[in-house]
Amino acid sequence: MKNFVVPKLEKVIDEEKKVAHSALIAETEKAILKPFGASCKFKAETVDICYPPIFQSGGEFDLRPSAASNGELLHYDSASVIICAVGARYKSYCSNIARRPRTFLIDADTLQSKAYLILLKAHEETIGMLNPRNKISAAYQAAVSVVEKDAPELLANLTKSAGTGTGVEFRESGLNLNAKNGRMVKEGMVFNVSLGFQNFQSKSNKLKNQNFSLLLADDVIVNKDKTEVAQSSKAVSDVEYSFNKDEEEEQPSVKVEANGAEAFMHKTTFRSDNHEILELEQRRQHRAELAHQKK
Questions:
Q1: Which residues form a coiled coil (predicted)?
Q2: Any idea what the CATH number is for the domain that residue 69 is in?
Q3: Which among 163, 218, 221, 256 has most CB atoms closer than 10 A?
Q4: pLDDT number for residue 102
C-alpha cells in the first residue's frame, strides 16, 4: 500500500491519466507478488494474494468483504472518493488493509470530511476495546456509541459489522465483530477491524459524486497488555487531497471531536505518505501554459 498503491494513485491523479480499475488491480497484484527492495525481509515464495485488490470510485461502492471492482476508469475529480483495499498472505496467513485502503478524499465537502473524522474515531475506539477483558460485541458497540454521540444522523449508514477475526482463513465467521457476538476476546487473537459508512447521498451536481462511501480497515493483534495495530497512516493529512489551492482561504474548516480533542479539517495540497507537498495546481497550470505556447 505504502510503496506502490499510494504513489501510483497520486501519480495518476497528478498527471490526469485515464486508468481503469482493472489495470490498477493487475499492477497491484504484481506488486504484492514481488516484494519491494533489496533489503525487504520477505521472500517472493512466502507471499501470495489474499483476494483480488479492490479499487472503487465514481459513485459505485460495495463495502462487503466479497466486493469486486468494476471495469470503469478511476474517477477523481473534485468532491470524489476513491476506496482501495489490499489483502496479502505471508506463509498462508492473511492480512488486510483498506482506505487509503485507502479512502482518498478529493476536495472533500463538509459531509465527507465530517464523516471521515467520525469514522476514524469510531475505528480507533473499536480497536481500543479489543482486549481480553471484553466481549467481542463490545468492540462494535464502541463504534456505535461514537456515532450516536457525535453524529447520530450517520448511524443508519454505519456498517453492521466492524470486521472479523483473521488468520489462515481470511474471515473467521465465529469472530465476527458485530453487536450479537458474546464470545470473549482472547490474547493471541488477530482481527481485521473493517468499519465503514455506506451509501451517503451528497448534493453534488455531478452524477458520479452523488453517492459515496468510506472504509477503514487494519489488522489488530490482541496482546496481554497492549493491542498491536498493523497499519499505515490514516491521518486526515494523508487521505485528503486538494486540486483547488485558491479555495483554501475561502472554505471554512470543519470542526468535530476526534480522540477526545478538537480536530480541524483543512483544504490541503497534494501530499505523499512522507508528507512531501506536491503543488498539484501549479503543475497543472504549467502544463496548460506549455500546451498554449505550442498552439
A1: none
A2: 3.90.230.10
A3: 163
A4: 46
